[in-house]
Amino acid sequence: MWTHTLVKAGRRAGAALLALIGLSACAAGPAPAQALPATVQAALQRARLPAQALAAVVVPVDAGAAPRLVHRADQALNPASVMKLVTTYAALDLLGPAFTWDTPVYLDAAPVAGRLRGNVYLRGQGDPKLVVERLWLLMRRLRALGIDAIEGDIVLDRSAFVLPEHDAAEFDGEPWRPYNAAPDALLLNYKSLAMGFTPDAAAGVAHVRYEPPLARVQLAPSVPLAPAGTACGDWRAGLQAQLESAARIAFQGFYPASCGTREWAVAPADPRGFAARAVEGMWRDLGGQLSGRVRDGQVPAGLQPAFGNPSPPLAEVVRDINKYSNNVMTQQLLLTLGLQRGGQGSFEAARAVLAQWWRERMGAAPAPVVDNGAGLSRDARLSPLALAGLLQLAWAAPVMPEFVSSLPLVGVDGTLRRRPALATGGAHLKSGSLRDVTALAGYVLAASGRRYVLVAMVNHPDAGAARPALDALLAWAIQDAP
After folding, report:
1. Percent helix, strand and coil across the chain, each rounded to 5?
2. Which of 449, 435, 438, 446 minimizes the C-alpha distance to 416?
3. What is the dihedral sign for C-alpha 325, 326, 329, 334?
4. Residue 195's Cα: distance from chain center in Å?
5. 121/138 Cα distance (integer angstroms)
6. In this predicted structure, what is the pLDDT of residue 50?
7. Domain range list for the chain
8. Is a pLDDT exceeding 90 seen at residue 276?
9. What is the mean pLDDT of residues 278-297?
10. Alpha helices (H) along 170-287
């Protein structure tokens, strides 16, 4: 339940946003456009893009301050991964940076002489970061209870989330890409298999390491090395990986020794069965025996957990989401808002929670169409002006340090580590890109010492060509140029 104080804060934020775009609460209309900086116009011309393709805001972080630039910023556009800023800030604000998920483990019998004549239950509650290392720790704790052999089943309870069917190929025809993985109440290692390749010149092969270990899957232990002198190039394509079968991963190609040690993450076939294969594989890898099988089910009523498996705090999870633009973690976070604040771990409940939060915090500012909350969507919409208002609000919030530090430092880390060096350490920004979208949003420290909110979005068939224009806008903001 939100307090009266939050309601008033939201109204103040909405009023500040209306003041920013030069509107009154009683009369709405298009935001006044301003001429783009000459360097940005020139970059757009070189890319053969019209000025109307870009919508942008540059405004001081202080709500109510006069903007430096407002260009077509009231348009509701597809923001791509920049939408993650809405989801992650809402989660920090509603749940708090210390919030954690738990994955409790239950036994329906007591182990005797190393044998459990019963079932083990794992109840997923939406943890976005139940990765290989933490799955290993969970299974190690299970072994530490004195269990060498499970004579029943390992039951996976995924009932915390209510989800529609998911086709990993639907969005862009790339079902093996981890970014297309679906959320899951018991999400293990992002439903991704990490394959590590280490060349062995003496043996003429590259040894392949797989994490997590997967049960009931035939995994090629090595792949032949390419002829000596072969450039690294597009080494993934050269492997000719066969990923179509859930029971087998093989390679028909070669691995160039010049690549050294590399890693490739893929989403294997049958993503619904990934958790069962990973749990059984890790259990057996630790020396555990299993007479039954790993299957879906629910924890019996009244059963008490043997132990819990808490996640890292939300502040750390948000950092992973925004630094590396992790789509499935963001969807887990949105669904958690539905579960924790709306009573159901569904997208419908989560979107309702987010809509109410937006009204409370942002007042009359046009609400976003969040879809899955990650920006991996053709339907998501958000105006640059509304996002700028939200970023101003976040700057004044108690969770500001956690939120701002979660964004990539331009030229330093995350998805923007290769961005132009002129902004090194001078901007915390989130980028976004889809087939027809390029976007950039966050905070800029200018040469004058002032801090600005910058939001820029391009929706155009050639949006990818607009990156130099966004870089030029960032440079203009940093330099405090007239």
Report:
1. 35, 20, 45
2. 438
3. positive
4. 21
5. 12
6. 96
7. 4-99+313-479, 105-169+181-186+272-307, 193-266
8. yes
9. 98
10. 235-239, 274-285
Backbone angles phi, psi at 72, to 5 degrees: 55, 30
Average pLDDT of the chain?
92
pLDDT digits (tens, 9 = 90+) for 213-224: 999 999 999 999
Asked whether this chain's domains 4-99+313-479 and 105-169+181-186+272-307 adopt the same fold, the reply is: no
3-state secondary structure of 239: helix
Q: What is the pTM of this model?
A: 0.91
Q: 188 near 130, Cβ under 8 Å? A: yes
Confidence of residue 287 (pLDDT cuts 50, 70, 90): very high
Architecture of domain 105-169+181-186+272-307: 3-Layer(bba) Sandwich (3.50)
Q: Give me the phi and psi of 242, to 5 degrees please.
A: -105, 105
First to last CA, the chain: 45
Q: Give dist(CA 320, CA 5) in Å, integer.
A: 31
Is the per-residue pLDDT at 169 higher than 70? yes
For 67, what's the count of Cα atoms within 13 Å in the CB-facing half-sphere?
Answer: 29
Residue pLDDT, tens place only, 374-397:
999 999 999 999 999 999 999 999
- Tokens read off for 189: 């290692």
Stretch (H or E) spanning 222: strand 222-224
Which residue pairs, CB below 8 angstroms and at least 24 apart, start in 61-68? 61/391, 61/392, 61/395, 61/443, 61/451, 61/452, 61/453, 62/392, 62/395, 63/12, 63/13, 63/16, 63/17, 63/20, 63/389, 63/392, 63/393, 63/396, 64/16, 64/19, 64/20, 67/20, 68/452, 68/477
Residue from 430, 467, 443 nearest 82 by CA: 430
Kindly state the helix (H) or strand (E) to which residue 387 belongs, with its residue range: helix 384-395
Q: Is 433 left (phi over 0), alpha (psi -120 to 50) or beta?
A: beta
Strand pairing class (205-211; 193-200) = antiparallel
Instruction: List Cβ neighbours of 223 (8 Å cut-off, separation of 6 or more).
Output: 197, 205, 206, 208, 239, 251, 253, 254, 255
CATH domain 4-99+313-479 topology? Beta-lactamase (3.40.710)
Q: What is the pLDDT of residues 209-250, one digit of tens each?
A: 999 999 999 999 999 999 999 999 999 999 999 999 999 999
Helix (H) / strand (E) containing 69: strand 69-71
Structure tokens at 441: 């949003």
pLDDT digits (tens, 9 = 90+) for 300-316: 999 999 999 999 999 99
